[in-house]
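Let us practice reading a record.
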Amino acid sequence: MTKPVSAAAFAAPAPSLFSDSGALAQNLVEAYLAVRGETERRAAPLSPEDQLIQSMPDASPAKWHRAHTTWFFEQFLLGEHCEGYQPFHPDYAFLFNSYYVSAGPRHARHQRGHLTRPSADEITAYRRHVDAAVVKFFQTAGEERLTKLVPLVEVGLNHEQQHQELMLTDILHAFAQNPIPPAYDPSWRLPTARRSAEEWTPLNEGIHTVGHADDSFHFDNEKPAHRALVGPVRLARNLVTNAEWLAFMQDGGYGTATLWLMDGFATATNEGWQAPGHWRQVDGEWRIMTLGGLQPIDPAAPVCHVSYYEADAFARWAGCHLPTEMEWEGGGGGRSPPAPASSTMPLASSGSGLAVPTPPTPATAPSRGRSGNTTASSWSTSSCCAAPRLQLRPAIAVSPTATSSTRTTAGNSRGYASPITPDIFDHRSAPESAFRRVS
């Protein structure tokens, strides 16, 4: 028996992570329970069999996501700061650690789908045990102590919200492999992407600050803020649509080697790519597998589930290039005061963000504003390397995911993200990845 999830819930407004309802302990309890409850709400429509499946090495089973996010709080909050706490099970630290090397050895990522035990019900018991201990800790630790732990709790909650998104992208990938395509929620629809009447935003040549500049929430690999020379360039303000992608396909884009990076064309050829991920041809018409089941392609909707390789080829076909991370931030996509939601910054959904060079102009800074691109995330051409003079916060045991073999994506996939998630996430994904992911 599975339980449907209301599609309206995914479009609910996003409140702040921490409320101001009174004492710090109460604020922490409310924020913690809201995020943890959202994870369980997302798992509710899934059967025990659904929660076990791992349809590709880069995906994880839903019950693993539920357990891993629980382990984070058990390991880093309760284990290190709550005297006398006893772990729920001695083997769970090995089973549900991911890439936290400092926390010890871990089960191989590509074998997470082999874990028939513990069961989904046992994971539910694990979550309840840890939740009860965390709430009690918040209520008894004292305000001075809790104040020092707020950054750790905030990282843990943002981490869980990322995994809430992954639960949906991962189960969508699994359902897309099923020849009788099941629906996670028959009423689910991709949120409408509002398009700007202005097609391009100019970014004049100049020195721009990139990275996170203040002490508000951020991940370690977003700091320190540093200066970069960018421009002149124009950034596309709208997401690339399915109609534009169909034109690329009809023009032979997938078979034209000169549009592709060498390793990209080899990957596309070897894996037989002819269309974005989750697209199927039915009676000569393209359809897309969604959380609502198999649906007709909406020409006006943003194209989703394309890899960096595909995005790069599309951009070259369109006479543009994918923006660098520095261009994206310099053009208004960085973390700065909110802009109107209609001021959507570049790009495409895990797809092609477009930029074109412009003639030199005086180095006047353009207006900056947070991207309104909350429908889907977008590829940049920048590799994920650590910022200059990167310094980790020792109180938060989170390693930076900096590696030259991955590419930076930015934006927020509101179609999958939590109703209480922040406006912007920065992610790192492998070039062949066709959906956003974290470990």
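A brief commentary: The mean pLDDT is 78.
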